[in-house]
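quick one before i forget lol
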Amino acid sequence: MKFVRSLSRSALLLSGTLTSCSLWAQESPYDLEKAGWFIRTGAYLQTGMSMSVNRVVAPTPITPGLYDNGFVQPDISQGAGGLTWNWGYTDNSQIVGDQLEFSRVEGLATVNSLENFENPTLFGPEILVGFEFYTFEIKNRTARFGFEIGARFGNYSGSDRSSVSSDVALKRDRYSLGGIVPPEAPYFGLPDVPGPLISLTPIPQNTRFSRAHSGLATEFEADFYTARFGAWLNVPLSEKWTVGASLGFTSIYAYGTATFTQVTTYDNPLFVPVTQTARQSEGDWLPGAYLQFRGEYRILDWMSAYLSAECANNGALRINGLDYQAKFDFGFTYGASGGLLFSF
């Protein structure tokens, strides 16, 4: 009897030990199903953005007394005595004897927009940290809910150009200096500040004609730093496969540089070609939201591979130069990402 009782006690002790070992194994920190924290790291691809350049400042309307190389306008005396100190010119070559010559090109067509940039696509690394907040049952499956925070980086560069042709006229007027020696160019008077007086009456000159060719080229480059915070939900399909979804806020810090170059040439050599260039840089935060769906395949107890598809909505980075605006618009975008998930 003592042997039987001893054997029974040994069996119970062994059974308890095995049960304890089994529970310990289930609660192992390397069991993905029980993990509280994880890191996802990999690469992403985002597309659906648009890049364009559009005119935002209307061409200057033709106004008497306003020219491409200066102006002659009434001052506060409103033309008393036929003279004005509200005038200005840009180059000393405009002085012809006792007169100042001004000119204005009329009928010039310019490029209004550029919309043939390389297809904007962002590709780069991503990293995300998440933790489990709550578990519950969905049809006898343990669903897990939590929060995540992550970061991404991407960049883009592209260029586009276009040109238009038109028939133009060069209107020329001269104004009498009345014997004064004009200040060195460039000089710009003011309507309410007295200065040297010249005639307010134009003396028309012969009009010249030519075929004009106006071109616009824009180079654009930008870096994009993305931060996101959201909630996630995972549901296991089997021992190896898990599906999940994330929904949250995303904010992109975009910093870009745009270079605008506008060149106008003429078939008539008496016309002076014009080249204008502006290089501007801007940075801006573009807030928005994202929705992601994932599939995860467990490789080891503590490591899985993931593949996701997502959509997002953010704003646009705008950079102005000359009379134009370059716009990199995220709007509604879609993409994919993939990599490894480490649980701990």
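fyi The first strand starts at residue 37 and ends at 47.
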